[in-house]
Amino acid sequence: MLNPADIALAKTQSGQRLSDSDAYALTHLAASDTDALCEAASGLRDRVHGSTLTYSPKVFLPVTNLCRDRCTYCTFRKDPGEAGEWTMSPDEIREWSERGRRLGCIEALMCLGDKPEIAFRGFRGLLASYGAESTADYVRIACEISLDAGLLPHTNAGLLSGPEMKALRPVNASLGLMLENVGPRMRAKGMPHQYAPDKDPAARMEMIDEAGRLAIPFTSGILVGIGENEAERIASLLALRRSHERFGHIQEVIVQNFRAKPDTAMAGAEDFGEDQMVRTVAMARLILGEQMNLQAPPNLNPDAHRRLIRAGINDWGGISPLTMDYVNPEAPWPHIEALRETCVAEGFTLEPRLPIYREFINEEFVDPAMLPRLERFQSDLDGAVAV
Predict the structure, then answer these.
(1) How remote is the C-alpha of 231 from its chain's centroid?
(2) Which of 11, 117, 159, 306 is the most buried (most CB within 10 A)?
(3) How far apart are CA 345 and CA 191, in angstroms?
């Protein structure tokens, strides 16, 4: 008699949607069953995405690394006056955007800390000197600069309100916010998000849902290895699936693994293991289904590229020829040609993409101010790939 986990795997092979109970049943599969998970996940991926893997050529723009949150694993955030504190000026944003465009980048990733103007009064004066009333307002200015330089912005600015997202929609190809984990336990005393009010999972899910109500193409994902258990990872994936099934707006889901960093409270924590990462990615594909774009960061898993392909990803995320990963500065981006060779060895081609997936480039999900630009970019990219 088949156990529930085997029944769940059989369902995916016949194209059936996994129920919540099916998803949790997968946690009962032994570590030795990871190959079976990957076989089912890669088969599901191949039905829609075929033999093409994608990546986004990007410039990583850390608009500001000031942040009111204090996650115990983060080295990105800084306090005012701390070594390495940086808020990019409009001139710097323009310079880096223009350099990236000359190097063939398409995406301008706007990445920054959560609501620094609430925590740091002096930052409000800096924003005013740039003609901005808030951090979100300055991000809009930064997006306009990058657009003028020939890039397509994708903004991940932490928690944003509905009006803030609505204001950013005309100058962004897409928006994003990592859910990280839907369980409130991560904010408990002694846990990684104890001093991070913007990591409240209910607030993050509300923003993700609000983006759906506003028909904004959205990137989200889970952060794994920060103290959560496998059932909590499943719950987080199911929460993202429910939001997408309601609104149809989640364009990709990232499975991002924890990497311990020096000079943090979690410096001594173990990195999320490769076997666990592969297993989680495969589960994500089975839960989210064949249509979803599923990503795992290649720079955080330099020795596992082949296994991640076999686990069901169809995208590598943003890779930059110009800027480092400021959130994970210890992890260099892979060389594109080396990554392409790995993909070919696994039977796949590697192609660049826009920071919005082609299925979202339409009047429903794109502001009228952005649609002609995105259509032109996609047409140019299709022509370049065809050559």
Answers:
(1) 21
(2) 117
(3) 41
Q: Is the pTM of this model over 0.90?
A: yes
Query: What is the tens place of the pLDDT at every residue in 150-161?
Result: 999 999 999 999
Both tokens of 240, joined, read: 């993202």
CATH label of the domain that carries residue 287? 3.20.20.70
> pLDDT digits over 73-114, tens only?
999 999 999 999 999 999 999 999 999 999 999 999 999 999
| Tokens 């859910």 found at | 179
H or E element, residue 255? strand 250-257
The overall longest dimension of the chain from CA atoms, in Å, is 70
**Predicted confidence (pLDDT) per residue in 341-373, tens digit:** 999 999 999 999 999 999 999 999 999 999 999
Alpha helices in the chain (DSSP H): 4-13, 20-25, 34-49, 90-102, 116-119, 121-129, 135-148, 162-168, 201-213, 230-247, 274-288, 305-310, 336-345, 371-386
- Domain-located, residue 8: no
Flag whether 32 is in a domain: no
Classify residue 248 by burial, with Cβ atoms within 10 Å: 0-12, 13-18, 19+. middle
